[in-house]
């Protein structure tokens, strides 16, 4: 099968969507499929590099940090894709590259499968001063975009229910995003733990909490900082791995709370190095409620880290209370659960083992790719059957 994946972002950009696409592409190729990616260039020129087509684009960071759009007029690069003749398009974003996907779908008469990665309700502060109107706009926008898809893939049941509440009529399949977890369990984990801590001047005897992700408003890191400032932290540190538009304000907030000596900001870290940072820590923490699935949660679990996260429907099947971590709703729960995780070593070891087992059993990239492959075959079959039915109905009408 020939598969075209369209996306606003791709390597070297680092985010959950890109991680998902990279892993899917790799696993689909292992299954014997031809896979190409169409994405936006980070400059005003188009080019092809290996099996990736980069389309010229412009930055529109005022709308959303890192956002880009294309006013694409040069169809030479699209013609090369059409000459390749993909069997299916798997769209990963709802904006410029989705418009291109619709153009290709019309020209090639092939189905679009779309993965709905982002809960835009949690991002309305970027484009609407009124939250109610912002959510209404998201619902209208989502319905309009997704009516062009043969199938919609939701990474969690939470997202599936949200799309149904928007009035989306397309078939929705819940398929948790798969991750290549092989790099999160290393034989030299203890060596990496010591190396990272020495590099960042974190005492080896400190219990280390870690957050990994984009430093943006929707991640709600202020809550983690506030709660961290209220607990006994004499032998505890918080490691913040990542970068983003809120970094400077978070650094100021840490100073305001007098926790700057216990909070370490790493800035942007390359994907290859991320596993070592997980292995340097003891507990994964997050207060985000803007996740669709939260790939960093699964990476942390695969690294053997119990998770302590704000309660959210999308995490209920990922983090199980008392099994591989805890979900909190307020400070008292945060404080209670961090003590349960860290005060008893035997309990910690059990949580850690359960965390790793669940990640590998349920969220591997191999299982993900096979589930997606089945959707492709089903969508292609139904799409072409529907076209035959339309032709038959039209011919019947003419004959009558």
UniProtKB/TrEMBL annotation:
Annotated ranges, domain Glycosyltransferase subfamily 4-like N-terminal: 14-182
InterPro entries for the chain: Glyco_trans_1, Glyco_trans_4-like_N, Glycosyltransferase_grp1
Domain Glycosyl transferase family: 195-357
Protein name in UniProt: 1,2-diacylglycerol 3-alpha-glucosyltransferase
Species whose genome carries this gene: Gracilibacillus ureilyticus
The keyword Transferase is assigned to this record: yes
A molecular-function term among this protein's GO annotations: hexosyltransferase activity
Keywords: Transferase
Pfam families in the cross-refs: Glyco_transf_4 (PF13439), Glycos_transf_1 (PF00534)
